[in-house]
Amino acid sequence: LRSYSARPGGGHRLCLALAEGARDSLPTTHSQVRTHRLLVPCTGAAAEAWSRLLKPSLAREVQRRALEAARSEAIECFAANLSPLLLAPPLRGTAVLGVDPGFAHGHKLAVVSAGTASVTAHATVKPPLPPRGSGSSGGGAGGSRGSSVHDGAAWGEAVRVIAELCDSHGVGAVAVGDGQNSREAQRLVAAAIAATRRGGGRLRYAVVRENGASIYSASDLAAAELGEVPLQHRAAVSIARRLADPLSEFVKIEPAALGVGMYQRDLPAKELGARLDAAVEDAVAAVGVEVNGASPSLLQRVAGLNRKTASALRAHIDTAGELSSRESLRQVPGIGPKTYVNIAGFLRITASDGAPLAEPLDATRVHPEAYAEARALFAAAGIGSGALCQ
Fold it and tell me: Which of 270, 275, 288, 333 has a Cα at 20 to 30 A from 320?
């Protein structure tokens, strides 16, 4: 045998597609075995052994190896697509309104606070549906949405509710899910922003990926975190938090539901989960975790913390308020001296109101054990503490 290859080529997507087609009994291509042209043709028992036993066995072996390579490549592709989501810059220091677009049941709204990202309000608005066949473009707040007085009243009420939420809770940004009816929800939000007391000002909205939000809202994790929030509003909370802190929120979603790769459900769940954990660990090591706004799902991925200590840390912040320094980590039950040394370098402290910290280095990746050396280096370079706060 000179060579043996699967035909046709095309990367991991084609290989996985062929495997899925074969599993569903769909017509598919076959592997080809090429023999060296100088070999004497087999006859008799040798020919039968080749055609009936050896050739099919080799074909299955190469298909198996190609499928394993395709799965490994798909997992790496998934992790490569996931990393930009995890490393997207967070929106600090402002409350966020999340909008989960809908049709007959209306748009679900939820406001999360700055810093801890706790839910402060939730509501539902039911603006009139667009006319059939009208598309999703054109028109203003009171334009082609509907010609009847009832439609205009419903639209105006939806605008009023959203504007009132923005004004009363100091919302600085609005996150709109990119699912069905997102375009109409964006038009509604734009009209509501213009109707706020600030007249828009610096208030803006962003379109946020909502893959997996519905699955998360019905999960046990969501029930534990958002037990007081109605089930239908939990997806809006997740959308708002994805804008406020993508790293902390995306780690809660099952990898197959994130929509950042193909054939996730055909990949080995254990290997995919391990690669996802590695991607999250890389992200945590690269940028650290803002402890006051991090979820237990993210905190437990910090080196030195487990599920129990992460839950205790989150509960301490929720009850006692935001941590003002890394030293206050020592007051959390379950975090002893050794655990503090392990986790301090990965956890960042920032004030939700933007106020300067007593120790500016608490917001950096510098470990507390190296603060003295860092200050000496800054002093030698002529950098004062005021510059560090900036």
Answer: 288
Q: How far does the chain reach from its first CA to its final CA, in angstroms?
A: 68
pTM of the complete model: 0.73
Distances (CA, A) of 88 to 11, 306, 353: 28, 25, 21
Residue 363, number of CB atoms within 10 A of its CB: 18
| Sequence-distant (≥ 6) Cβ neighbours of residue 265 within 8 angstroms | 256
Cα(273)–Cα(279) distance, integer angstroms: 10
Quick one: tokens of 86? 């995890």
Is 344 within 8 Å of 366 (Cβ atoms)?
no
Beta bridge partners of residue 109, listed in sequence order: 99, 123
> pLDDT digit string (tens) for 183-239?
999 999 999 999 998 766 789 999 999 999 989 999 999 998 899 999 999 999 999
Beta-carbon-side half-sphere exposure of residue 238 (alpha carbons within 13 Å) = 32
Residue 262 DSSP code: S
- In sequence order, the β-bridge partners of residue 152 are none
